[in-house]
User: Fold this.
Amino acid sequence: MLRVIATLLVVIGHCTYFNIITEYGGCDYSYLLVDKSFVFKVVSKLTSFIYIFHMPLFIALSGALFAKSLHRGHYTSFKELVNKKAKRLIVPFIVVTLLFAVPIKFLSGYFNESTNVFKDILIGQILLQGNTHLWYLA
Assistant:
């Protein structure tokens, strides 16, 4: 239940991203906020509050669940742990990055100012040097 609440807090927190700029690309939708309304101000304050604890909460949950799986004997060796985690986390990260995140960012104009789109995708998205989703899996 706590994971569901934390996930909802992340979604709420990410709803106020209007300006995402890195050296590997970016987009600025802040011009859409002609008038910073009362609702926008409240949501921004809520986002600031959520950002105080939402990632530490995820990390604590992850550690607790990992410890529980260790006690149950799910990982008998380091090699087994690495193989299972790579299949479960790294492979989906690469697939979702290439088939979802990069096309969405390309269509939204994130790479419009890029002089080398391939380099920006490789370094900024795959190697996680720019703004990208699923950064916590690496």
About this structure: The longest strand covers residues 19-22. The beta strands are 19-22, 25-28. Residues 39 and 45 are 10 Å apart (CA to CA). Residues 2-137 form one domain.
